[in-house]
From TrEMBL:
Belongs to the complex I NDUFA8 subunit family. Its main location: mitochondrion. Residues 139-163 are annotated as: Disordered. It comes from Galleria mellonella. Accessory subunit of the mitochondrial membrane respiratory chain NADH dehydrogenase (Complex I), that is believed not to be involved in catalysis. Complex I functions in the transfer of electrons from NADH to the respiratory chain. The immediate electron acceptor for the enzyme is believed to be ubiquinone. Keywords: Disulfide bond, Electron transport, Membrane, Mitochondrion, Mitochondrion inner membrane, Repeat, Respiratory chain, Transport. It is found in: Mitochondrion inner membrane. One of its GO terms (cellular component) is mitochondrial inner membrane. PANTHER family: NADH DEHYDROGENASE [UBIQUINONE] 1 ALPHA SUBCOMPLEX SUBUNIT 8, NADH-UBIQUINONE OXIDOREDUCTASE. Residues 80-114 form the CHCH domain. One of its GO terms (biological process) is mitochondrial electron transport, NADH to ubiquinone. This is NADH dehydrogenase [ubiquinone] 1 alpha subcomplex subunit 8.
Length: 176
């Protein structure tokens, strides 16, 4: 990748955070509760990425998402480890595509434990598809000015002669 000298790249120390080192079935098992628990941080990060269009400007928001995820799984480990492991193990071994339909009994046990200990209810079906307005304290970025090119081809004057196309219009079927 070629960069110019005026492009600022963050230092490696700015990018280094502890990773969420969990397997796929483990992340799937906690995904619904995790999504609800870290909803504010996730929405802030996604809004930043959408508005800024530059991932370098959203490093702190990304760190907040990772920290929230680590905090959630630490709380689950402290309070519902055996129920969570049973549910994740069922997801891992009950089907070839990590289907949840075979694990509804272990899911309900895990959901009850999370509700009792973390006071976090499993979100309803379609919860993450609902439109929400996210309130942020981060200022909205200024709109980018329209690019102006000094050597651009000038437009035709309004009074210029406009001849019809030499071989007719390419949209001949739309004349009806």
């Amino acid at each position: 990748m070629v960069l110019t000298a005026d492009v600022h790249l963050p230092e490696e120390s700015d990018l280094t955070v502890p990773e969420v080192n969990l397997s796929g079935p483990t992340l799937i098992a906690g995904s619904f509760h995790l999504g609800k628990y870290c909803e504010q941080a996730n929405n802030e990060f996604m809004l930043c990425r959408f508005e800024e269009k530059d991932p370098r400007k959203c490093i702190n928001e990304g760190k907040a998402v990772t920290a929230c995820t680590m905090e959630f799984f630490r709380k689950v480990k402290r309070s519902c480890l055996s129920e969570f492991n049973q549910y994740a193990n069922c997801i891992d071994k009950s089907s070839g595509d990590f289907g949840l339909s075979h694990c509804r009994k272990t899911q309900s046990v895990f959901d009850k434990c999370v509700l009792d200990n973390l006071n976090l209810e499993r979100p309803d079906f379609g919860y993450f598809c609902e439109a929400r307005v996210h309130d942020t304290k981060r200022p909205k970025p200024l709109p980018e000015p329209k690019a102006e090119y000094p050597d651009a081809t000038p437009a035709l004057p309004d009074d210029a002669e406009r001849k019809p196309a030499r071989f007719g219009s390419r949209f001949y079927w739309m004349t009806e």
